[in-house]
């Protein structure tokens, strides 16, 4: 994990080789921890998480917003972090797959449902699916399997775990008290 | 004699599930090192020709850039073609990245920019200027069919078509019912969600730890040692998780070569990750053009089968897969002529993709069978039963087991096939035409030689280790189940270690052989541990097991107990103490039984039933229901097994309806090289998929009686869907994918 420069006064976490003038100071709350950091204007939130924060749970599948593997929750809303430049998210709260489980290790109900329903195989799209599903529940638009399928279609799964993903989300929805139609 | 089985056959959640849902599972491009540098690949803009100039000055001057590698400054690597051959290479001269100025396909890597950060490398890569001298290229298989040839050298492990039997041409001429047509499935790219990546961790002294996207860590290890002339002890490959592969990770790909080259040269750790575009710059499911002729008598009994396929391959390798042989063994027929040829086009070498060859050949055969049923006006399922193959006529051997009849029956029942009205266009709801189609699937139930180690500690913890992979198939979980049963342990007490070249020898994970191969090796190693443990227990003073053989005892809850009187037992810890050891380690190697292999043909079978709804005005096809009934021997884990089949069916739906790698022949390049334009099925495309496993006793294919499940789910699925589309619309589409333009014609 990068050192919090505000706390230690150490050099800011930044991609090496960049001119200091290009750096912008931003503050992000990532998985509950507030961090100040210097980022280049071209650094995406995804690359910041993966390359600078070593939060590799968030995946890069296409880097073009086509696959959903990089889905994180930004201020509670699901977004493709590959399409978000980190500098534009100053002050935001970011929740990644690493931040979903409770401090004691208890899985988030969505994570537990994914395990129980075997809603993944290789696991590479899984963090994005789970973050997307958590965002989906919060949006409150999905009430049926049909709607889950439609509203989860931005998250590709090449292993084809879709029926199990839908089953897992239905279970988590029921647990969250969202009535399925 | 097996211990009583608690876990084998039970639906267990994946043992690596927690790591995957918390983001803790690490994939090749996610390992890091303190001095990690990042490589970005520059791809060729032309399909054929030579590089006349490559200007890297601007890139080298860009901030953070460490080095730009091209063919001009590439460090010395092996010069023998054969040094680049990997475990599953087809005959030919493997592609050698940055070898010289020649460009042999579009997208070929022509430079690697290495920089301090990913962004710096990417930025500088755009500054590399390449000047080419074009040469005429040909990427259209249809233009080179006249030059098709029978591959002069067979690819190891790939059977060429069997010799013709009977007189197919004469029998076809004489047959009262004939269907003869051409079939085509579009080339496809694997597109695993994880792009190919390699992280090379360099240690002072030159030792490398390589994290590679590969379906077999030892294949990467032997490739690297051979290409870079490194001793085996200095190269360790660790690939615990693979973010999907579907065959794309069978052979080491160019990012591995580039990352290792840069690491050795710069003497630091290097990571190279391909972009999604670049995932279209190596192997793919080959363009394959087929013709099939079926002749039958008036009752539908096959009199003649003639099936020919011509597949595209690269200028430098003769890729081969089994496309037509299935037509000689799926049904009984005494007059069969099968041909398989290759023709060269200017692309990279094709690469095994989920059930390589089978869904292509079976699309033709199963479409043909449907056409035959329609011509005869009989139920397509009944036609299959009338032609049921009781033996493998390609080899003259009996099947090791074949419960396909049960699969047909149970699948049809579950689907409600009996309610089908056989006339096309006879079922509709509103403006949607409804179609029901079915097809047979078949795939080989292979086993390879493999070695595994089992280590039991006095504390009752068991570790099993083998260098195989888990590409999402569930290897970790099934090996844990098998090992736990062998010693009567809880799964929590067992750790499966895989994906590491330092572990006992395993073949690559592919061909649906891993459960049989790695599973049998792990069980054998655990049985060896059991035997040692019992020997120690028997030698104890006043041992209650003094005269007990393996048949007389059970291993349960950390004890060896007499089967006849479980109260008489010895704990694992006491037995080990008596033996003067605190751990028992055994390594065993298993291989297919030669006697059985000479007499029996092991195959997995499937009966696939599909329902489609076709919008009559728009031509849009939805697959609303699939039932796939599978005969695959014993099922180790019904939960992960079901997932494997669902995944295969989804692949089949993609093949049937959406997936198509489109070549722009003017540029000689795949033009839809991204996943917005290469259409993988998405969640909304997938409805009900019902998987059934029929009981099948298998005792010959391998010691644990299983048949692999990675491929069978796709075989026959596309054909069943195409047959359903015909049933819905009356239109026979012989070119996949069935996009709406083909239905609106």
UniProtKB/TrEMBL annotation, chain A:
InterPro entries: 2Fe-2S-bd, 2Fe-2S-bd_dom_sf, 2Fe-2S_ferredoxin-like_sf, 2Fe-2S_ferredoxin-type, 2Fe2S_fd_BS, Aldehyde_Oxdr_Iron-Sulfur, Beta-grasp_dom_sf. Signal peptide: none annotated. Residues 24-100 form the 2Fe-2S ferredoxin-type domain. GO terms for molecular function: 2 iron, 2 sulfur cluster binding; metal ion binding; oxidoreductase activity, acting on the aldehyde or oxo group of donors. Gene3D superfamilies: 3.10.20.30, [2Fe-2S]-binding domain. It comes from the Bacteria. SUPFAM superfamilies: 2Fe-2S ferredoxin-like, CO dehydrogenase ISP C-domain like. Keywords: 2Fe-2S, Iron, Iron-sulfur, Metal-binding, Oxidoreductase. This is (2Fe-2S)-binding protein. It comes from Teichococcus coralli.
Automatic annotation (TrEMBL), chain B:
It comes from the Bacteria. Residues 22-136 form the Aldehyde oxidase/xanthine dehydrogenase a/b hammerhead domain. InterPro entries: Ald_Oxase/Xan_DH_a/b (IPR000674), Ald_Oxase/Xan_DH_a/b_sf (IPR036856), Ald_Oxase/xanthine_DH-like (IPR016208), AldOxase/xan_DH_MoCoBD1 (IPR008274), AldOxase/xan_DH_MoCoBD2 (IPR046867), AldOxase/xan_DH_Mopterin-bd_sf (IPR037165). Gene3D superfamilies: Aldehyde oxidase/xanthine dehydrogenase, a/b hammerhead, Aldehyde oxidase/xanthine dehydrogenase, molybdopterin binding domain. Pfam families: Ald_Xan_dh_C, MoCoBD_1, MoCoBD_2. GO terms for molecular function: iron ion binding; oxidoreductase activity. SUPFAM superfamilies: CO dehydrogenase molybdoprotein N-domain-like, Molybdenum cofactor-binding domain. Coiled coil: none annotated. This is Xanthine dehydrogenase family protein molybdopterin-binding subunit.
